[in-house]
Amino acid sequence: MRIDILTTFVEMFAGPFDESIIKRARESGVVDLRVHNLRDWTHDRHHKTDDEQYGGGDGMVMLAAPLIEAVEDLQRQAATVTHIILTTPQGRIYNQSVAEELSRKSHLILICGHYKGVDQRVIEYLKPDEISIGDYILTGGELASMVIVDSVVRLLPGAVNSMGSVEEDSFTSGLLDCPRYTRPREWRGMKVPEVLLSGNHAEIGKWRFNQAVERTRERRPELYRLYESTFPLRKEGKGAR
Ligand code: ADE
Predict the structure, then answer these.
(1) pLDDT tens-digit profile of 5-57?
(2) Which candidate in 61, 66, 138, 226 could, as Cys together with 41 as Cys, close a disulfide (CB 3.0–4.6 Å)?
(3) Top mutation candidate among 138, 139, 142, 148 for ligand 1, by most atoms within 8 Å of CB
(4) Tens digits of per-residue pLDDT, 120-173?
């Protein structure tokens, strides 16, 4: 997959994209990830990417021309079907199923929205997939883009060592994850549940599944209802790992 990001804050991406799974995915060619400075597509000597809004009011609006020209250039370079994303609080709410949908695209271009947003003509012209990562306001779309890219790249074949681990993720199954334990067996009087030490994989699977169901029911009733309506025939203890 190729991913291009358009931003005026290129340096913000250095940490998250140069560590751990994303770093390895880039090095092994699972993803061709490039961060571009939008100022490279400006024509004035101040490299302006935004301006005051018509009608008055606080906050700057991102100019249409640099954004549209940048996207057109990147589309030409990649020569494949592109999916354009604009990060904005006005977008559809992001979740795991949107991440899965995006992971099946061959080329993503992410526009990091800023200030009071982008000139509406960018939206009319490019018809981007407007995405919000939640009902709160960030200082800019950069963090939202990082969240999207991180969650999409880990779904790409070859990004995570064990695909089983990805398939077991909460939200993929429709349930929250069960509790997990590692060494030692006992710490400050707190013991690892006996069943996990039993070696009985069927029982372990049942226990994990029941814990996941119980957690989801308690913590996220709306997710649980959705799960129940999606898998009406699923019995506790079945389908567990
Ligand atoms: N820009 C500012 N806040 C945002 C949000 N919640 N999601 C996506 N982009 C944003």
Answers:
(1) 999 999 999 999 999 999 999 999 999 999 999 999 999 999 999 999 999 99
(2) 66
(3) 138
(4) 999 999 999 999 999 999 999 999 999 999 999 999 999 998 767 777 777 878
- What is the maximum span of the chain, computed from C-alpha positions, in angstroms? 70
CA–CA dist 98, 92 (Å, integer): 9
Tell me the C-alpha distance between 205 and 239, whole Å. Answer: 8
Contact between 106 and 81 (Cβ < 8 Å) = yes
Cα separation of the two ends of the chain:
30
Q: ∠109-72-79 over CA atoms, to 5°?
A: 75
Domains of the chain: 2-153 (3.40.1280.10), 168-230 (1.10.1270.20)
Atom 7 of ligand 1, residue of closest alpha carbon: 132
Q: Is 92 in the pocket of ligand 1 (CB under 6 A)?
A: no
Q: Report pLDDT for 155.
A: 97
Which atom number of ligand 1 is nearest to the Cα of residue 137?
A: 3
H helix count then E strand count, the chain: 9, 9
Cβ(117) to ligand 1 under 6 A?
Answer: no
